[in-house]
Structure formats: structure tokens, C-alpha cells
Amino acid sequence: MSLRSCFSQGLKQLHHTQELCNATLVAGGKRFPCNRALLASVSPYFQAMFSSGFKESRDGEVLLKDMDPGILQNLLSYLYSGELTLSPESAEEVFMATSRLQLKPALALVSRYLMERISLESCLRLYMLARDHNHRTLLRGTLDYLGIHFGTLSHHKDFPCLDLEAFINIISSDRLAVASEMDVFQAIQRWVVAMPTDRLSTLRTLLQHLRFPLLTQDETARLQDDLAMLDPQLELQWEELDGAGRLQQGRVLRQGMYQERIVCIRVPRLGDILSASDEEDRYLECLNPATGSRTKLPPLPLVALPGCSVLEHRLYISGGKHPDGSYSQALQEYNSLADVWHQLPAMSTPRSVHMFLTCQQKLFALSGWNDSGPLASAESFDVAQQVWSPIASLPITLRFSASVPYKAKLYLIGGDADSVAVVYQGILIYDIHLDTWAQVPLGCCLHGASAVALETGICVIGGFFSKKATHLSPNRTFSPHLQCTSKGFFLLDSGVISREVAIPPLPLPLAFAGATVSQGKVYLMGGVCASRTHDAIYHWEPGEAAWTQYPESLTGQGALVRRVLKCVTLKVANPKLDALLRDPCICRVAIGAAEPKPPC
Asked: How far, in Å, CA of 428 to CA of 425, rounded?
């Protein structure tokens, strides 16, 4: 028997016989003998109580006022046996008790239980519960759910019961899935009208959280009429703004004001650049997966094998190789809201064939190649500060790894380890907070695979694969010693392959395909099949038994494409807002003392 099993069985026996008890908890007139060392080991609340000079520390008796004895019995059973009984009727009360007693392991179980069963009926109540108990995980989860269903929940009978602080926290959130800022104003209007005597005085404060520049002319006129009925003394101030001014004054778009597009980035080799026509300079294309429509992004000069990444509505292209053979250190940013490219501060090191990832508002350029050969160096770009900084170098140099950010770490899975001319049989994991690299054995050779992050882990799909260590042949395009695979696997954040999550095989073996997630589906585009480039698009939603081929190909003509792809999911403004941002002659309104004047 293991030590853990022996310990667990011993605790159950002590609980059953009530032996060695040196503390008593009292709730609802009932007494519960227990062991103070056990309580103090899992609860800062009891640890402070039993290690102080208070009466409870001397005689070991703790009176828990206003606590249901049945709830306390349930929690003590959990501490002694690891078994916690939860039901929809009792879960919220158990949450309050575990929070009060600071039983962190139980609190994590209860909050997970509540989030798994969150509904339109319980969301607002759970949000207030999480806020009152300062439980960040439950608060974040309920805010996300509330944001997605804001339109419905703003009409819920409990919505007017929110206090001022909670209400402001919600209407100021970027996560609201509203297509128009008018939806937020109407929610403000309903909340105020529910108790006008008490709340009319807060209207000016509430309107400070409304993003006026994101309203159309018609919406602005309607809002002004509604405000005049609520508070005739409230005045509006007007100012002319173009699209850029609207974005600056309107702060951040709400979640529902975006739509997702998949940007296909052709990643040409040097030979393709030299033979490319002027028309092929436009090598970035936006695909609407819902309709199949495509649009071209503004042109950007072709470079060979650049890095590509995305952050919300901004696309980044870094490095690459110029047609004259020189290596680039440039960083280009495309803003989908303004539809323009900007050149940002350059990397400190020119690099191509590098991994380029976005995580926690930073860009990471990792390894790659330049005139000096393979690179182990890495650097990060702070998007807010617009500054590059060196980070810890990789323990080995890598190319063609399946690379993906997940939580606060970067994962480089397999790849070519050029310094020793072998395919890397492992995973490099970079911890952003610690600035350290760790190596985890993979158990197979893999390069040219694709990877995407899901909520619970990482999907790794396709690539050139072998269970045995394989040396690369010189001057190869793709290693003849590795077979292309159609299989995939699911990776946990520890770097261990999960046997519980199955990824169905692709319809055919593929490597070097572009991969991204859009609307909950994993998309795989292009790639190499049997040493020839492939132009099909496949998608798969976790839980489905097979991949589905998208109706159209990358070329739209069924012809083979000559370039391997990368793809990312970019946020773009919805059509209504996009038109608004491109109109240079609409005015914004703000709360002020100036006399109102009509919009231009």
C-alpha cells in the first residue's frame, strides 16, 4: 500500500471512530469533534485561529455562527475522506462555507462545479457570489458567460438588482458580445429606470463608461432623445473625429463588435520570390470561414520564410529573407481596423525560419537562421512599450517545430535540430514569467507538424514522423527518412501526451500545414502531401469523430499551390462598425457642459 493510500485510509478510520480529536467545531447547536492539525494544514483560517492566543486556541472549541450543520458535516467528510457531496441546491451554500473557512482545495472543486452548470438563470447570482467572496476564477468565468449572453441577461429580472459597483464593472468590460454600443446604453437606461429616484443621480457616472465614438449618427440621435427624457439637464458635447480618432477616443472595441477571419499567409521559399509576379506580392488573404468570401490585405513586399503571429485585431510579420539573399530583422504590423501596415522597431537579430508567437501582450521571436547559421538566441517585443528585449536562449537550435503559446508558456514541439543534424525528439517549453527553458522527452521524431491551443491543452497534427531517432540527409527539402503522417495527439500543459483526448486522423498525411482555431473549430490549410503541396482546407470541432473538408480549396480552382501556408485568426470589425470607422464625417458625443450642436 502506498503512503498516500495508507494516509487516506487512516484519516477515514479516525473520522469514523472520532479518536485523537483535540478540537470541536460547533454549528447549529451540533458538535463536531475533529483534529486541529488536519484543519490547520488545509485552512489558513484554522491555522491562524489555533496558533494564536485566542480562546479557541486554548480550549479547541470553535463556534461557527450562521453555518448549516449539514454543510459543515459535508466539509469535514471531505477533509477526512476526500469525498465532497454537491448538488445544484446546495453548491452555492457550500461555496460560501468553503470560502469563509478558506478550504482552498474544496473551494476549487465547488467553483468548478458551479461553472460547469452555469445558466442564464444562475449567471448573475454567481457573478455576485464570486465578487462578494473575491474568487477570481469564478468571477472571470461568470464575466465571460455574462459577456457572451449580455443581450439576454440585461433583460433578466435580476439585472436591476445589481449594485452600482457591480453594474459599472459589467458595462465597462471589453468582453460584452454586443454588436453596437447602443445595446450598452439601453442596458444603462433599463437599470436606471428600475429605481429612478435612487439611480438617476448616477447617470452621468454610468455614461462615462459608454463608448460614444462607436455610435452611428442615427444611434447618437436616438440616444440624445432618450437622455433628454431621462435627464433634461444633461448636456452633450460634440467633436468631429475620423476613423482613427474614433478608435483612439472609443478605447477598445467590445467583443461582439469583432468578427473572426482566417488570414492565410503564403510562406514562400527564396526561389518562389525570385520568380513571383507583382500580383503575387499580395500574399496575405482573409477568409471568412462562415461564407467562404475572401479579401486581400494591403500589399507587403515578399520575403522568404518570415514569422507570422496575431494579437486580437493586429497581424505581425517578422524577419524573413529578401530576394537579394539578405536576412530581414523588420517587424511589420497590420491593423485590421485601420486597414494599414505600420513598420515597428526591428528585431535586434535578423532571422528567418524562426518560430514567432504571441503571448500575454508580447511577441516572441525564437531561434531561426541567418548569415551566421542556426540561431539559439531569442527575443521578445512588448507591444505596449514598443521595445525588444533579449530572453533566455534556447538550449538547442530549432527549425520547423510545431510552435504554440498555451497559458503563460511557449511550446516548441519537435523540429530540426540543425546544430547536430537530427530531428529533435522532444519538446522545449519556455516559461514567460521565469525566463527559463525546460526540455520534455517526446518519444518520437517529429518535424513540420502543426499545433493549436485549445482550452484544455494543445492539438498537434500531422508532420513528418518516426518513432526512431533519425539523422537528416544533407541538402534535403523534406527528410526521406521520415514518413508523413495523418495522425495527431493531444498535449497537456506539462508536455505529456494525453491518452484521454483523441484527435481523429486527417483524410491524408500532411506536413507544414497552416493551423488555427476559429469559432471553436480547428482549421488545417494547405501543407505538403507526398512531397507535393496541397490546397485543401479541413476543419474539426473537438468531440467530432472525423475531419470535414471545406467546400472550397485555397486556390478556389482545385489547383496545387506552390507555397506552404501559415494561418492565424484575426479579429476584424463587424460590417456596421467597419463602415463607421471609415467615415471621416461623423461626430462623437461626450458628456460635458457645452451647448449641443447637431452632428456634421
From this structure: 10
CA–CA gap between residue 316 and residue 343 (Å, rounded):
10
Sign of CA dihedral 106, 111, 116, 121: positive
**Burial (Cβ within 10 Å: 0-12, 13-18, ≥19) of residue 134:** exposed
Q: How far apart are CA 300 and CA 294, in angstroms?
A: 17
How far apart, in Å, are the Cα atoms of 367 and each of 269, 400, 401, 413, 418? Answer: 18, 10, 10, 13, 11
Residue 280 has pLDDT above 50, yes or no: no
Write down how long the chain is.
Answer: 600
Identify each DSSP E strand in 164-213 by its residue range: none
Q: Which helix (H) or strand (E) segment is 599 a member of?
A: none
pLDDT single digits (tens) 339-364: 889 999 999 999 999 999 999 999 99
**Amino acid 561: pLDDT:** 45
Task: Give the rounded distance of the alpha carbon of 517 from its chain centre.
Answer: 11
Angle subtended at Cα 286 by Cα 283 and Cα 291, rounded to the nearest 5 degrees: 140
Q: pTM for this structure? A: 0.76
Q: Please report, as a single letter, which amino acid is at residue 105.
A: P
User: SS3 of 543, please?
Assistant: coil
Tell me the β-bridge partners of 498: 490
Spatial CA neighbour of 117 closest among 90, 99, 97: 90
477 in Cβ contact with 485 (< 8 Å):
no
pLDDT tens column, 366-376 = 999 999 999 99
User: How distant is the alpha carbon of residue 107 from its chain centre?
Assistant: 24
**How confident is the model over 110-145, as pLDDT tens digits?**
999 999 999 999 999 999 999 999 999 999 899 989
- Domains in the chain (CATH in brackets) are 3-117 (3.30.710.10)
Helix (H, G, I), strand (E, B) or coil at 129: helix
Q: Return d(Cα 514, Cα 95) in angstroms, integer.
A: 44
Query: Is 300's pLDDT higher than 90?
Result: no
Beta strand pairing call for 445-447 and 464-466: antiparallel
